[in-house]
Amino acid sequence: MGLGLLADISERLSRNFRHYRSGFPDLVVWNEAECLFVEVKGPGDKLSAKQSIWLDFLIAIGAKTEVCRVKSVSNKRIRV
Questions:
Q1: Contact predicate 26/58, CB 8 Å
Q2: Please, which residues have CB within 8 angstroms of residue 50's CB and are 6 or more apart in sequence?
């Protein structure tokens, strides 16, 4: 992730945690080389304003971001 990126995110949260605590991406995926912030959306789901604000901020500080849109493959119920 890198110290600069971590410092920017930490500073944002420390400035106003109550305001910025929601909307952060669902997943943070990383390996030795890179870090990716992922917001997951189901069928018919849209980004909220706070989610968009977080994604815009992360992009502005140089973070890799994605929105993963999950599609339904069947409307049949799964039975266990």
A1: no
A2: 22, 23
Contact 25, 38 (CB under 8 A): yes
- pLDDT (tens place) for every residue of the chain, 80 residues total: 788 999 999 999 999 999 898 999 999 999 988 999 999 999 889 999 999 999 999 999 999 999 999 987 776 665 55
Q: How far apart are CA 38 and CA 63, in angstroms?
A: 11
**Euclidean distance between the first and the last CA atom of the chain, given in angstroms as a whole number:** 40
* Kind plus residue range of the DSSP H or E element containing 34: none
Q: Are 41 and 68 in contact (CB under 8 A)?
A: yes
